[in-house]
Amino acid sequence: MAAPGTASSAASGFVLAAPEPADPRLAWERLDDAARGACYDNNAGVPDSAAQVAARNAASAAYRAAHPAGLDIPYAGAERTAFDIYPAADPGAPCLVFVHGGYWQRNARSDFACFAEGLNAAGWSVAMPGYTLAPEASLAGIVAEIGAALDWLAEHGAGHGLGGPIVLSGWSAGAQLAAMNLGHPAVTAGLAISGVYDLAPIRETYLNEKLHLTDAEIATLSPLRLPVVAKPMAIAYGSRELPALVHDARNLHARRAAAHARGALLPVPGADHFSILDAFRRPDGLLARAARDLLEGASR
Q1: Which residues form the BD-FAE-like domain (predicted)?
Q2: Is 299's pLDDT higher than 70?
Q3: Which of 39, 114, 117, 150 would be a feasible disulfide site paired with 60, CB 3.0-4.6 Å?
Q4: CATH class in words for 33-298
């Protein structure tokens, strides 16, 4: 059998090496707490992360201010369970539902408004749901809230100008939430960006101080441990991401490909965990194009 992270072919006699750098989790038992945490610490892994976040938040505040009509629309009763909606002129246009990240315990939908810009310019609607953060909510509860947001869109979206097909997307922790809700009947296709798809290592890092992950959550909320949903889903990651995230993306795509589920693997050249979302800022950006390609593929 090939070593973890490699693929081999006895018939052809070749071995395809794992992507570099190697997955540090292959030596997980030898890593101390600091090294385990570093595998997932995107802020530390991107030297200018603070400046990128500040610029993102400022651009998002400006975009929200310029598009105030569809903000803060509740889909459930909790404080954060509301949508920011940026509708297209055509109520039948496709809609990207974008779920923000922050390791399920920080950030808000309002911080990501600027990433509606590219698809809005391409004639799409964009809807951004918020959700309750850990530790106030468990991860199971957060996954269920995104499902409730999609239920609300199915029932009420047309009344808010969102009558077209839905591509469900998410970044970082939001990618896990998107992958977990790909099977929702309102969703046509998915676009998962820079995600974490196996939760088991997370429980052994500083991130679990607020998440308090259970065995059941690891088994039932890790996309890499679940049956494949047959709908199309593209999986994107930056070429400068932390290795653990690169390998999770490649592993999830390989698992889906083995089940004959459609969807491209999209390494974004030169992108880190934060700059990757800039590919949503223009209609011709790689992520904006990927969303459009998903609907074209789903119709075939």
Answers
A1: 84-180
A2: no
A3: 114
A4: alpha beta
